Amino acid sequence: MAVGLGIVLIIAFNNVWRFSPLPDALTDMLAVSGLMVLLLMPRQEGARESQCSQLPYAALVMVLLMVVAVIAGRRADFLSGQAVLVLSAGAIGSQVFFREAADNGKERLVTLVAHLLVFGALGQALVGVAQALGLASLARGWLVVDAMNPTGNIMGNIGQRNQFAHYLGWGMIAACYLHAHGRLRTVLFLPAIAFLTLVMGWSGSRLVLAYGLGFGLLALLWAVRARQDATVQQFGKAAAWAVMAIAFTQFFMQEINQGLSALGLPLHLSSGADRLMDAGFGARRRVEWTKAWMVFQTHPWFGVGWGGYAAQSVWLEAYGGLPKVPESALFTHSHNLIFQLLAETGIVGTVIVVGGLLLCLLPYFRKGETTPENLFLISMAMVTLGHSMFEYPLWYLPFLLGLCLVLALSPLRPITLEIRPALRRLLGGSLVLAMGVYLATGLPNFWKLVAYNIPAPSVAENEQRIAQLERIGLNPVWRYDADMVLANYLVPSAEYVDIKLAKLEPLLKYRPYVNLLLKVAMLRAYKGDAAGARDLVVQAIAAYPDALPFIFGMLHSQKHPALMPLQRLSETALATYQRKGALAAVNTVAAPVSRTLLF
């Protein structure tokens, strides 16, 4: 059990092989391999027949959401096999975690999880220290480094500052739980909390204050309701220390950095509180929330399809009439769990998820459930769901499995299914086989896509690569990723226009990056669709104004009468960009502001 959980909760968060075009593929594979190890573990004799016919509601929620994703994808003529994979893994993980708790006891499982999270969080925090001190680049690729900001972007091996702080928040809560049970003595607990909260502050995540406030309120509620439980009371005291440490490191970060600099450790990092007072939570988030609401209003029942938000976001940037906050990045997510579900799965998918969350989480607050284990688990959920209101951690499999753990261990009575033992074994074996096939085929596919992402100088070699990419694309899990790489080999020209459009246009529904928009625009122009071509160039300029030099260069890379209107459009926008900046350039093509933001 420890090995499988360790892979899911520690190793999967330490993937340093984040290569384009699939930076998270190996992370998913590591998480799936951890689930596979847990599935392969033999069950205790007394538990085989009594528990394997029980299903946690968390697994049912994942399955139902997967069905909605398939339905919505088919309705929109768009379906991401990756969504099916991730939601299937969530369902399997929920069942596996529930089974482990049933076989080994909830307290034993939670204690193991807490040990793993403390160990993993301290390790990640050490990586953060190496990044802050400029030492990570010396690790020969074993530590993640932001090449553009090596000592200012503190993100651990997780690779993103807010996800990094999220994981350290889990570790902080786990340390409090272990201290409450006497498994982490004060002499180790206090330095661990101080260290974790300091590095959380260095991450610059603005949500750390919310994590501290939420954890403090939950601990207070448990302490008030379980006055006679000495362990809960000790947990509350530990939480108080953690909250005070968060407050101190957030509001006195500059003084802390000055003190460390005086000791010879030059640091120039801002805490989340500093960033919050400087810029709030970011105006662009409010733009994306409004876009998601507009998409939902257009597709209310099943949404636009799983993964379809990105294309809607780009189109609305040009034609939605919203206030402009240019960032020149593709927003694949609206940065809010509820808005994203509404946009991509509609009312049906949102009701399933929100209803499932309430169904599984509310029992934690029932009378008689104020145990240390439940406080630890509900606090983990608080961090994850709080983060999900401003970003999308649940779109990363390890974080999704962390929430599935909480939902699966809910005090809610599970679903009882009458399934014969032989069929249960067959189902379990089939799942292991499917996961094994995914890993066996996925690993070579991943490395091929990484190797083939940039075309080779040799025409003959590129022809061989294209043939292999076509074969990889036959697998629905890898279809869109293979086609996205294949798009790099398709040059916009007047030859084979229909064939190229048939391959490239469907990708605009999934990932409308600037180069893809321009390729399809040029092909449409060659085909005689001047309006369709202009539409895509307008979207490219509106969504990626800082890419205007690239847009100008690509549109002028070929001389053809059909491209001249597009070239003039880019010339005007580029000249405005150079004189007045990104916002002015966007306004040369985008619809005028006619709407207000939701918030």
Uncertain runs are none
Proportion in β-strands? under 5%
In this structure, how is the largest beta sheet organized?
A: 2 strands, antiparallel
Task: Summarize model confidence as the mean pLDDT.
Answer: 94
End-to-end Cα distance: 46 Å
Helix content: 55-70%
Rg for CA atoms: 25 Å
Record field, number of beta strands: 2
Pfam family, one: Wzy_C_2
Protein name: O-antigen ligase
Membrane topology: Multi-pass membrane protein
Keywords: Membrane, Transmembrane, Transmembrane helix
Structure description:
It is found in: Membrane. Keywords: Membrane, Transmembrane, Transmembrane helix. InterPro entries: O-antigen_ligase-rel_domated (IPR007016), PglL_A (IPR031726), WaaL-like (IPR051533), Wzy_C_2 (IPR021797). With 599 residues, the protein is mostly helical. Among the domains are: 228 residues, no CATH class; 110 residues, no CATH class. The longest helix is centred in the C-terminal third of the chain and has 31 residues. The radius of gyration is 25 Å and the shape is globular.
Briefly summarize what is shown.
This protein is mainly α.
Summary tags:
PglL_A, mainly alpha, O-antigen_ligase-rel_domated, WaaL-like, 2 strands, 599 residues, two-stranded antiparallel sheet, transmembrane helix, O-antigen ligase, globular
How is the secondary structure organized here?
Elements: H1 2-9, H2 25-40, H3 48-51, E1 54-55, H4 57-75, H5 81-104, H6 106-132, H7 161-180, H8 186-203, H9 208-225, H10 230-251, H11 253-262, H12 272-279, H13 283-298, H14 309-319, H15 337-361, H16 372-388, H17 397-408, E2 415-416, H18 421-451, H19 459-472, H20 479-487, H21 497-504, H22 514-527, H23 530-543, H24 548-555, H25 564-580, H26 582-587
Antiparallel strand pairs: 1-2
Helix pairs in contact: 1-2, 1-6, 2-5, 2-18, 4-5, 4-15, 5-6, 5-17, 6-7, 6-8, 7-8, 7-10, 7-16, 8-10, 9-10, 9-16, 13-14, 13-15, 14-23, 16-17, 19-20, 21-22, 22-23, 23-25, 24-25
